[in-house]
User: Fold these one by one.
Assistant:
Number 1:
Amino acid sequence: MNQRLLLFAKTILTMDRSKPIEDGFVLVQGHRILQVGKRKDLFLRPSVRILDLGDTLLAPGLINAHCHLDFTLFKGRVRYQGGFRQWLRKMGQKTRETTQADFKRSVQKGIKESLAYGTTTLCDISTSWESYLLLRQSPLRSFVFLEMLDLGNPSARKYWDHFSEKLRALARQAPSTATFRWGLSPHTPFTVSKELFQLAGRSLNEGGELLTTIHLAESREESDYFRTGTGPMAERIRALNPDWNLPRKTTPVQYLNDNGWLPKLDLGVHLNIVEDRDLKLLAKNRIAVVHCPGSHAYFHHPPFRYRQFRRRRIPVCLGTDSLASNQSLSLFREMRLFREMHPDVSPREILAMVTEKPAQALGMGSVLGKIKPGYFADLVGVPRAKGRGALADPALQFLNHRGPVSFSMVHGEPKLRLSLVK
Ligand SMILES: [Zn+2]
């Protein structure tokens, strides 16, 4: 438990210091980082296990701020044709046809892939409610957000009574741990009724410790629906729930604000279509935005307004979304895709979107997302680039890494190791 482990690595990107540490060390005790520095400044103590990672770039463990492990096996199976609303319907259909055993397999595959690609913390939206036990037992640090969606249900009250009862039972059966926490995810502002938002919101007011996330302002169809309250999306919703309160002359963000949900929100996912007044509200309520570059490209959404978010100091994190709309659960790929679309943003700033920014958004900014004394020992290592690439900025070399990582550690436990020297 309190054993000390000394790691050596050629380059350490701490995300704490302004410059990388060359020929560095990280001393880990139990779950936490005790000391970080240059190898030559190390006063070596006896009885310390040593792991020399050699020619490795070491960085804080990566945080995937949005994914759906339930849908890992949907890769390439839900085609995007004829608009976002139709895609969502196909997803609904496919979800209903999937067995619990298949969801389990999907989650297991997703956990394996995430770990292999250097993810150490994962925010999972759970539709099937199958992921919590698997994630809780897995080496990953995880946040499981149970998804709430009552479109097509006749009574929001009955839905909430059942949902909240089940959530309480699960939280008793599988309480939070140092590496596992529960969260709540209303699906979208157009698939959760006003009544259900109110019921869930009231419960959050009663002192719950749940983190919250929602898909928000993702598609043009969603924005049109909130602006006009008419069109195919409105017709479909009315066909399913004739009494549904249709919005008008508003935006998804404004709508959430009007029903009291913005102050309760931690992570807003997508925000592809935002107006200036939305940006003001997001900043005021200190909401972190999760951008999913792979999924964004898949749906051909309008350009992501990173500059505007940055100008307003709205933190932006990255997520992979599910493999129903993406090719990989690798955050390295997401970072590269982001860089292709925003070449003026520095590699270090991009790396912060999968380390310190999501750590802060999850309320763990003082223990996660940096290699710093006192922080949890969540680390990831990749081989340093060879040839001309080796001259590049280490953060850029890190972003350009492809394939599985060579080292990872979650909560002080090494998951993949190179050579154990002593
Ligand atoms: Zn999603």
Note: The CA atoms of residues 128 and 369 lie 29 Å apart.
Number 2:
Amino acid sequence: MTEDGMSALIKEWGGEEHIPTRLKRQFVRRPLCEAQGWLCFYCRLPMEASGGSSVAATLDHVKPVSRGGKNSRRNYVAACGRCNQDKGDMSAEVFGSLRGNYEGRGLPKSVRDKLKNIPPSERRRRANQLAAELRAPAPKPDAQGGR
Ligand SMILES: [Zn+2]
């Protein structure tokens, strides 16, 4: 499908928000996967076209819906099911950095500095911690509960 053809369809549907899921797979997910060479945006491993498995291609919101991201083509990348799940409501920049794709582009310096010293084997675990920190306001120094 050409870019023009897609725009026409989106107009007909009354905007990208209203594209039915089945059509979204066909006209949004598939072209994205092809543009990415069927490699996950984050981990760069091959994705499968059919659903269900952890390596199946999914549409991932660059800016999570929980943070005001839209269901829009411009807000999607194709990611494997595992990355999509691990990403949770992290932004693409943060998660991509942790997965080694984004190289810290667009991240606050404080986060880039944190990432620099994390060995790749630690990144996955650290991703969850960092996500929690970014999600929640910084805890007061005296309110830090141990776990
Ligand atoms: Zn992946």
Note: The mean pLDDT is 74.
